Amino acid sequence: MIRYRIYTELVNYAESMELAKNLLGDSFTVFHAAGVYKGKEEKSLVFEVLLATESDEPMHFAYRVKKMNQQESVLVTRDTEIGCFNV
Length: 87
What we know:
The chain is of the alpha+beta class. It has helices at residues 13-24, 57-68, and strands spanning 2-9, 29-37, 40-51, 75-79. It has one domain: Alpha-Beta Plaits. It has a 4-stranded antiparallel beta sheet with strand order 2-3-1-4, with helices on one face.
């Protein structure tokens, strides 16, 4: 299981959600957060998707949302030590 997280500024919310649905698939989580970038506070979104195998789609999403929101950067993290338990 691989967890990708994409951190972006909270702008163009509806468009970001639609893009996520198109590129991240039908199962992902969105966290509303407060962030600080270069000392400036900003409202943020964190898109989290869990995938069974490697995928380029989270990076495609990050690139597209960065361009759409006219951001200098978007943070992407990738974790592989994730367990999934059905309870």
